[in-house]
Amino acid sequence: MTDLPEKAGEALAGAFPEDERRPAPGRERTFAALPPARGRGFAQTWWGLAWLKALADSALDNEQVKQGRRYARAGTVGAVSVRPGRITAVVQDRDGTPYRCDVLLQELAAADWDRFLDLVADRAGHIAALLDHDMPPHLVEDAAAAGIELLPGIGDLEAECGCEAWDHCSHTAALCYQTARLLDKDPFVLLLMRGRGEEELLHDLQVRTASRAREAAEQLASSAPEVESAAAEGISAAEAYAAYTAYAAQDSLPPLPVPPAVDEPGTAPVLGGGTEPAPGVEVAALEFLVSDTAARAQRLLADALAPGHADSPSQAALSCAQDAVRLAASGPGPRIAARLASGSGRTAQALALAVRAWEYGGAPALAVLEEEWAPEPAALARAAAQLAAAWDEDEPRPQLRRDRNRWTVAGGGAQLRYGRDGRWWPYLKERGQWAPAGPAAEDPASALATLGGGADGDG
Q1: In terms of DSSP H, where are the helices of 2-80?
Q2: CB-CB neighbours of 207 under 10 Å
Q3: Which of 40, 80, 104, 118 has the most CB within a 10 Å radius?
Q4: How far apart are alpha carbons 226 and 256 in whole angstroms?
């Protein structure tokens, strides 16, 4: 990468004009310029890929986006400044001219942040994911159900550039590609763009959870005598009948009780004891199924009580063969894994491959592993168009041989599989068989880039 000229510093000096207020401490992050990204995808996480899709959907000139990708690959994007509603960097043009670029994303309103923080505080899993710098799909889906859009959509990424282009130019596109690499490592970059930095957000969550714990304890302490009294005295039949007839006269029903708090599932009981189990019943396997059932019941109940659940699409039920893989992915012991393999009609090796696919993408990834299908003409045309546009003219293009929905790199141990949902899944040849090698990508070049050197030589 060539160093940006000294004029780049002058361009950055104008990052905060007089009419643009400098962010408060903790609400701005600056990332050093990243090295060139040759031979790799810009995003591997699903939210990083969603960011790049928003760029593709927002830009009117696809050639400018491609040129921006080349700029980003060459390392011409300088340090990236991230603050609420805006990302800024200096991008060096082909002739060496530096341009200040800004990409704007609307901040969430205060009311939206309150709803989002309440939503996260209600789910221990959401808090754990954020602390682990992860953004699971169900967190974004729950937020969307509450009317909060975290990820950008069509037209959400607005561009401003010193080259005076009125739409996304190659410079702002390069900034978006470089930002995708930052998002991959830390989703708090996106949340900062939406208006809250990591420290501020986690502090607000801590305050909320502590306040709720105090309120729950106070409510429990204050209601205990009343509960005990009511339990001791009971309610007369006349009062119960009178309450029913009052609601019936109004052609209505009594109000539902407040939904219960959803706790984490408890410890499964130990089923072993003095009595021998019936023939064919393995105690350890039964205990494992009890624990799994409790965990699934907790998740289903939490989802059912979440805001907007009635409007959320229902998930398709898993087949016995799919559910066996889901159970095996939770890490049971070797004996239980062997029973799952046998019960689902798989060998131990086939189950291990199925588990790897499941960990990359659940049921859709498992289908790509185990199903071979011939795309319809329309789907095949879309795939061919994606392949044609995936690599820039100055990039080496791999030679691919197609067999139904599978494209294999000629002379190498790499393969791309086209899913029924239009995404591309990377595979590597391991010990003579094809094995899942990463999550799905929207374009084939990104999927192939996750394979690294495996795409060039025998696997």
Answers
A1: 7-13, 46-58, 62-74
A2: 12
A3: 80
A4: 20
